[in-house]
Amino acid sequence: MESSVEHSNLTLHVRLSRLMAQTLTTVYGVGDEFNGTLIRNTQSILHSMAELSHDLTAFLNENFHGLISRASKMAIRLMLAHHHCVVLTTRPLVMCALHMHIEKTERKTSQTLSLSPPVASLLQCCADSAQTILQTLQTLADDDLMGNADAFLPFQIEDASSSAFVLYLIRAIAPTLIHSSTWCDHLECVLDKLISKGNPAAPLRRKELRQLEQILAPLTPKSNPLPLPSVNVNSDTQNDNEFHGLDHVDVEEAFEWDLLGLNSSVSLPPRELLDLADQLDVESIMQSVGGAVG
Known about the structure:
This protein has 294 residues and is mainly alpha-helical. It has one domain. The protein has 12 helices and 2 strands; from the N terminus they run H-H-E-H-H-H-H-H-H-H-E-H-H-H. The chain has helices spanning 2-26, 37-64, 73-106, 117-142, 148-152, 154-173, 182-196, 202-216, 235-240, 257-260, 270-279, 282-290, and strands spanning 67-69, 254-256. Helix 2 (37-64) packs antiparallel against helix 11 (270-279) and helix 4 (117-142) crosses helix 11. The longest helix is centred in the first third of the chain and has 34 residues, at 73-106. It is globular and about 60 Å long.
């Protein structure tokens, strides 16, 4: 049984790594040309992510009964890698929105973008996954579960800094997507812990993020913006993803799925993720970056 769990865990890690590699080699690029490949590649990644999300949720539900022990590094690493994949996939859309946000600010038209529902939903996925990563890392830091060996590996600092990076951008572009500022406290806690453990990159990343915050300050709306389009998530689908069989689990020694934002594995269940992938097109991108609110 244990070997079967280890095999499934390894298989999921391999699939996540391949999906990240596919994202980095297809969704990311250089140059100003826009020929629609970003949309097609993003759609392909989202379809693969929805399938992986379903399998990951089933694995964690079957083997951890809906709750995850703080000592279960296997499950925590899977969750962090999965959310990092969400951030990587959706970050190019954040950058597209940032580019148009800067142009609108320079023209002194409006500091708020009008996001189409598919783009707003995907940016919400990005924001939620980034906040989940920082919250999870802070819980590990609070319980002193960031080992010295882990602190010298690149994964935790990369998870923290890439998550903070997109959250700073989204806070400037569409602040209503971030419902709380607690992620800033989580970030500081994680960086403090990594620095205390001797991580050589942590001080530099903290400096870079503070510079980014200063640069984005003039672009961040000062007043409360109008709400973005609501995300149409089928409540029945969400209920299908809730977990049962928790009576025998010690809640004090476990993370609840809701705490980690994993009751539907990502911000949206696989079915909604697939729908968004199908709705995402050039027109939805241009609609998002072309209109002003208020």
